[in-house]
Write the structure tokens for this entry.
Amino acid sequence: MTEHILDYWNSQAVRFGEDHWASWGDSHAIMLEIDNIGKFIQKGQHVLDVGCANGFSALHHLEKGVASIVGVDFSEKMIERALNLRLTDDQKRRLSFKVGDVRQLEFPTDSFDVVYTTRVLINLPTWEEQKRGIMECMRVCKPGGVFILSEAFWEPLVLLNALRALKHLPPLVEHDFNRYLKMNLLGKFLSEKGFQFEVIDFCSIYYLGSRFLRELATDASAYPGYSNPINAMFYEMEKQYSGGGFGVQQAYVIRKV
């Protein structure tokens, strides 16, 4: 991982501490991610959160009654924040954090029932390193287990920007610390490896509303960051309906046989 990417996430941890802003300011999108991943987590399982940041999501998944969750992150500052979480004695027994690298996970093969990443692989600067991270996550996943790859993708971004261009809105861009995955490359790679997978488009309605329609229906400049109230409306709508290919965040659910 290049130094400027690591420096960015360390600075986010220092700036925002245990708040969700340490990983992302869009709390609605984060909760959609958590809810989607949570559908695959069951009571009594052993779970690995790769790229756990300050532990915000892991703490939510702990409520599923899992046997354990281990969170790893490349940022030492993020892990420092995670270790400062206020936990009950029961939570402390079931939740742990350590510095780790998705490209070289320090766990035995077939260790976890569920492995998930959330906007983690996009911090790797090349497709080759992203593939290495995928294979490491599959390695530590148990046979019969599941790896949920919840990441940002290039194709939905292009689709959203095509809509925005029709209304002469400026394009949305990748941050300089991100390298969005390509759906066509990922699908081809997983198929060539013989992996069984499904794609879940879990936030398209939300993205359509919060990244396009809000700028047509409201004065977006009056609401800095993610504070536009229309975002909450489309977040609630997303719980009822989804699909359309506009969700930059997509989930690939890979079964290990």
